[in-house]
Amino acid sequence: MKLADLDIFVVAPPAPGWGGRYWIIPKLTTACGITGYGEVYASAVGPEAMRAVIADVFARHMQGEDPENIELMSRRVWGSGFTGRPDPTVWGAFAGLEIACWDILGKARDRPVWALLGGRLNDRLRAYTYLYPEDGMGDAFWTAPEMQAEVAAARVAEGWTALKFDPAGPYTIFGGHQPGRGDIALSVAMCAAIRGAVGDRADLLFGTHGQFTAAGAIRLGRALEPYDPLWFEEPVPPDDPHAMAEVARAVRIPVAGGERLCGLSEFATLLRLGGAAICQPALGRLGGIAEGKKLAALAQGFGAQLAPHLYCGPVEFAASVALGATIPNLLMVEAIETPFHHALASGPVVEAGFVAPSDAPGLGITFDEDLARAHPYSGDRLHLEISEAPCDYARGNAFTGGASD
Questions:
Q1: Distance of CA 109 to CAs 36, 80, 125, 281, Å?
Q2: What angle do CA 106, 356, 36 make, to 5 degrees?
Q3: Alpha-carbon gap, residue 191 to 223, rounded angstroms
Q4: Phi, psi (5° rounding) for residue 278?
Q5: pLDDT tens digits for the chain (405 residues)?
Q6: C-alpha–C-alpha distance, residues 213 and 35, integer Å
Q7: Distance, first Cα to last Cα, the chain
Q8: Residues forming a β-bridge with 146
Q9: Which of 130, 222, 334, 388 has the fewest CB atoms in 10 Å of its CB?
């Protein structure tokens, strides 16, 4: 069994685009005709440039290789160009290709991916959802505690037991910064309203996007402590693990992070410093499923849990579920439940706040290539973009949930 062919889908979800402006989904085919799908998380270059990177990584390090030899291929990519260190674009390209290899291996053996990773430990995986506005709420939703509380109550009524929101202002090229006093007040009001709406039926997951200095994050975190969030997500920029550790020592809320970390080594530094109680890898950037399995073991040794992150499409979600089924220190997985996600790659579905790993071969998904081709991305923006405007201390700030505009 040898890897022979590569195809790449760049899919634009319909507005409002929860999951980003586009999803990059590589398809691998073996010489004997077995196909597998993966997903590359956000990169620092546009989709056409990323196509070229993915094609280069495949041709240079993977084409003609047995898809079983994941460790060999990963070491080739890690050391490519005499690097031996995280490169989010190249390593992210490999991550998506690596996920596709696991899909192939499961199909070749007529077994789900989780069975190839040590077997199923978790029959049901707890899932969490971001709070997205309901129809008619508009942009006012993002700074309206009463609207967020209304949506939170609706999600809990559906069975969700964990809800994420992030009212603390923009993430910008100027981070980290001190939060405005109004941002702290809005964050407190949001936590109070949501806690009042859901009581003890759900955990609150307070998100930020690495926008604060350590001192600013500590001010904000201490203000949120009375509402007992389950986590304080990425409070400082991801390139400063020492600052993450400083916040973790000073705030009585578990610190979570890792969406933007690349490879095992960056998580290892964070864990050694005590900078995270909860690791949030995005498998399409981390390095794939095998790297996720390694991270789970590493985190377990530090007494930390995993909560795989998701802000992209359904293939990475299927990979998160396959990994999560096998690890003892899983906390929960992030889910985005839109009709387009399910139509593009039918597979694991969240029901009443939990998702069951699929028993189908590979990742357990059926990918609709016709639908993917019918929704190509034709813009010139990146999957996610950071604001160039600094924190507004006079008029206030709002983060609109990553919607594509």
A1: 13, 31, 24, 27
A2: 25
A3: 10
A4: -135, 120
A5: 999 999 999 999 999 889 999 999 999 999 999 999 999 997 789 999 999 999 999 999 999 999 999 999 999 999 999 999 888 999 999 999 999 999 999 999 999 999 999 999 999 999 999 999 999 999 899 999 999 999 999 999 999 999 999 999 888 888 799 999 999 999 999 999 999 999 999 999 999 999 999 999 999 999 999 999 999 999 999 999 999 999 999 999 999 999 999 999 999 999 999 999 999 999 999 999 999 999 999 999 999 999 999 999 999 999 999 999 999 999 999 999 999 999 999 999 999 999 999 999 999 999 999 999 999 999 999 999 888 888 889 988 887 776 555
A6: 46
A7: 43
A8: none
A9: 388
Instruction: Determine the Cα–Cα distance for residues 94 and 34; give it in Å rounded to an integer.
Output: 19
Closest CA to 221 of 211, 202, 235: 235
Please tell me the distance from the alpha carbon of residue 262 to that of residue 309, in angstroms, as a whole number.
13
* CATH superfamily of the domain spanning 116-363: Enolase-like C-terminal domain (3.20.20.120)
Write out the two tokens for 332: 């929960």
d(CA 258, CA 264): 11
Class (C level, CATH) for 3-112:
alpha beta
Q: How far apart are CA 379 and CA 68, in angstroms?
A: 36
Task: Enter the pTM of the model.
Answer: 0.97
> Distance (Å, rounded) from C-alpha 400 to C-alpha 107?
40
**111 is written with which tokens?**
């077994």
Q: State which H helix or E strand residue 129 sits in.
A: strand 125-130
320: nearest Cα among 329, 328, 330: 330
Q: Which residues contact 361 (CB under 8 A, 6 or more apart)?
A: 106, 107, 109, 110, 111, 112
Half-sphere exposure of 18 (CA within 13 A, CB side): 18
Question: What is the Cα–Cα distance from 364 to 318, expressed in whole angstroms?
Answer: 7
The owner of tokens 């095998």 is 290
CB 165 within 8 A of CB 209: no
Q: Are 330 and 117 in contact, with CB atoms under 8 Å apart? A: no
Q: Which of 402, 352, 405 is nearest to 164 (CA)?
A: 402
